[in-house]
Batch of 2 targets.
Target 1
Amino acid sequence: MKKFIAFVTKEFNHIFRDTRTLVVLFGMPIAQLLLFGFAITTEVSNAKIAIYDPEPSQFSNQLTQKLTSSDFFSLAQNIQKSSDIDAVLKASKAKLVVVYPKDFETKFMNGSANIQLIADGSDPNLASILTASASAIIMTWTKGKMPIETQIETINNEVRWHYNPSLKSASTFVPGVVTIILMLVSAMLTSISITREKELGTIEILLVSPLNPAMIIIGKVTPFIILSLLNAVIILGAAQVIFDVPINGSVLLLLLESLLFIIVSLGLGVLISTVSQTQQTALMLSLFALMLPTILLSGFIFPISNMPMVLQVISNVVPAKWFLIIIKSIMLKGVGITFVWKETMILVFMALFFIGLSIKKFKIRFQ
Amino acid sequence: MRTLFFILQKEFLQIFRDKSMLPIIFVLPIVQMIILTFAADFELKQIKYVYIDNDNTQETKELIHRFQSSVYFEEVGRTHDFKGGMDFLDRNKATLLLRIPQGFTKDLQNSKTASLMIDVNSIDGLAATLSYTYAQGIIGQMQDEIRMEWNGLPEKIALPVSIHPRYWYNTEMEYKNLMVPGILALLVTMVAMFLSSMNLVREKEIGTIEQINVTPIRKVHFLLGKLIPFWIIALFELTFGLVVGKLLFDIPMEGSLPLLYGFTAIYLLVVLGIGLWISTITDTQQQAMFIAWFFIVIFILMSGLFTPVENMPSWAQEITRANPIAYMVKVIRAILLKGSGFSDVKFEFLWITIYAFLVNTFALLSYSKRN
């Protein structure tokens, strides 16, 4: 036991000596959190629009005023001739062009005014949201212009947003940031730190020491377990203090599940280190085989239900997918273990599988 | 010139000697591109919904029928009370709950206004907003038709203004047309940044840098020798990616390819310069990798690749001016999708050129042959 403690102390010294890595390790999640919370919102605001109004009239000026004074849009420019529409969109000066007909006011009185909304369709989602918002504003204005006696049937939608009422992107992304940082610290750092000993040759010295291989591995990963958990706690705390992202469920359960996920990631990290000879290979393998699937196929940024069948099937072997479901359920929906036991069992199996495999590989490698 | 040639020869030998690096440089990014393009689909199809219809009239049945036949929605069930509906949302079985209260049709007939309740799981804000937008579309259309039918009026009298949305440059509203060029920009950046940032520091870590430092090689030559191979590899990667994108995804190529290559060539100097600079200020590959990772993640998130720059607050939009990836993503999309010419992207050209000059000067200054 004393030998083991000495070994863990050595590992900690390795980590704490490298302050630059530590700064990145703790600084990155906070930076990401701030970005997601403040800069990256899913709500459209101040989108640039251009107006083409060949014959300005009182009505069209009023409507333009309504459009540009809303939070959604800000006026980029008034277009003078129809051939300029293409130029404005091509130079990305505006994302949407509102085209009035000639004689808008007369046509309005006759009940046949057409307004064209020309959107830059290169981003289809943004384009749909922009045209939908512009249509809504135009409709509201139109109804206000009509005499009361011709009031018409209107269906009101009362919408309620659940689990994330203010549509904060922080709530959407905090679970993802936690997942990524756990994966990064546990799998990527572990694999690189073990491979480093291989590359520099110091692993031989460890292997001839009285510590047995299992002890070496456990000693190697212990500091990373502690670092990961600490990081997770900091992120969750910061999210709560700065952005009011709640933890509605049990904190203890959340930490236990995090620990489980950390163990799975460590298993993967050790596995990668057994198959790579240089740090560069270990890095590239963790990057492309672990980090990208974790970011892309876990449902962190892209909804899994949108993916083609093949990718949906593949996403089942990505541990982060299951962990994200668990952490979102506990944090935002506030549900207990009865709602996530299936996902938990899957992670337990994955942990056993990866650890078993890497122990086997490790023994063969260093006999 | 001869010195540079020999250094280049050495660098290429080193890169191609490592058998495990070749597939990592060429195969993995392409695999990533294919997976990403399929995965990075924000387009919402088949939003799962559940409904409660307490009114049960012809009109409400018609409304439900419209949801059922919409390509955007997929029905997962019908319940009779709010609690049952929320259970679907709690268990992730549905994203949207539509509630039609009793007396809905009567209200619409008598007082001209009636209300529907829509509950949305908004953990993913964008998906929630879009789901609601689509639901609004269906309900709005139903409302217009009810107006015409009940009042026996042609549409134009019912409302004096009609709106015609048009989507230019991407009339089919294909999401992959947006994503493939963006992902290509991302892959080229990642390969260039990681390879260049880990290369020089590796020589430091292993100790071979001392041998180079004692030779008469000038530091400009040495750094150029580190830059040029990755510059060539990254441009090759762009070509490879464009071919795959064209063959596999049939992405549009409206603009001029030489213009795109010209811009990428300058842009890569920025990325490689940042990589080199990281390499000169770090001591181990691990540090270099972490710092490179830090920059890349922040640059990517703020680049407009996954979330439109338009969605950011204006101060954050100002910050993206310092983000090289944002320029690349914008320009590659403008050229490939919209066919923008040089005059449309001249400011981006100017900025990226200044950037390239600054970053490389910086890298050159911070590298010294003496420790």
Target 2
Amino acid sequence: MQNAKDSFYIALRTRLATLNPERTILLRGTTRPGILVEEAEASFSQIPNDVFVLRWSGVGVDLNLGSAMVAAQCEILYQTCGTQSYGGLDRGRSLSKMDEELTSILQPFYTAKLNYTATPPTAMLTKVFWDEPGFTPVVTQRDRLSHSANVMVYSYQEQGE
Amino acid sequence: MAANWFSAPAPVARRVRGYFAPVSRTSQIPVLFDPAEQGGFSLDAPPNPWISLGWIQGLTRKPGSKTAAVLTGIPAGTLEQVRETLEAQVSFEFLSWTKLTMALATGSQHMNLLAPASGATLAADGATAATAVTVLSGSTATFVALAATDAAKFSPGSIIALDGDYTGQTGFIGTPISGAYVRTALTDIDYIRRVTFNVALVSAVTPAGLTLANALPGGAPASGSELQAVTGFVDREGGSFYQEWSALFVMEGSQGERIIFHYPRLQTISGAQETALPLDSKQKDGLERILLKGQFLALPVTDPLDGERVVCYRSFLPAASALV
């Protein structure tokens, strides 16, 4: 399942870097595309603004198949206060832009599954695929707008996984 | 050693893509699809002459063939089976309203509402149309050459219908796509353009002619074609014409495998129907999406491979490295 989670994240990261190269985050001294996996970073009390944060939650397994199917729920969280140059008055637009970016990078709804524990990563036999995102209502907290989308990510367990 | 195969479960597909191609009604020749040669086609660029109708939903295939047992002995036991009738039905919902999806989802001919002439008398399927303009040579499926004065009558966003004048023909009307069957000669010179499938949206206008946003289904205009503006479409409940098309339905699985259903001959069997689908399943009385409902009867063809009569071909192209 970890390979599927890694592949999903890397696919979204690659697509985001192409779609909006300016959405970046400085993390551990390195500038990276503005998307990260919460469980793979140092814990933070509040998610950073203007980046996408992937939070893995529920898992389901269907064993009644030739290859077991694993469904992992991924909550993608993001928030914004708008930009300083507009005094935050553009926070609605900023959030809409992030909504559009997320919808865009989730398509196509599949990617190749790779094993990222190997260097270089090795291609596996199956693909990771996911459903359309389910967006939750926008949460307003003072000048901060937060949004999240739930995506169910599916993959087949391959031999050796 | 790493395994180089996997055991593939049942395919997981999101939706179904639908493609249609016109059956030659006069010669009764359907359009063939070869899954071995053409099965891997790009879903966004189907092989000629298939026309993509986008996603469809609710595809239901209902075999209607009946078999009977040949009994023998006392008490009688089944010796063998014979196929008594050959029939299958297909139904689904189109997720868009276009000229072609409307036509396919109606049980009769489908007509273009030609822009009316000034002061024309009202008519249920469109008043007498404004005079057509002549299409010049050099036109293609995506560009219609016109005289500068004629081109100036159109603007980006116009819908046009393009075909020859009606001069008293009877039988199936329209090539390569038949849009109607005329029993006795009519008097409307624009009749072919009323039923033609050669419609398109104008994306740009220059003094040389019209650039079309989508290719004309009939390809480059034939010599002598004329062009008129279209304001919309109309169909009727009733009539005697049945649409007949070759159809292709493709389900692409999550691992790249494909299930393809090829119906060489599909005829519409029901009148125009719509299905309302709530946008929010928790709010049934809120906004609804109106879907065109298509129901079809599959007609048989004779497979030249062995002379068997069949109504549908189902192909499966496995995913790479999947056990078969």
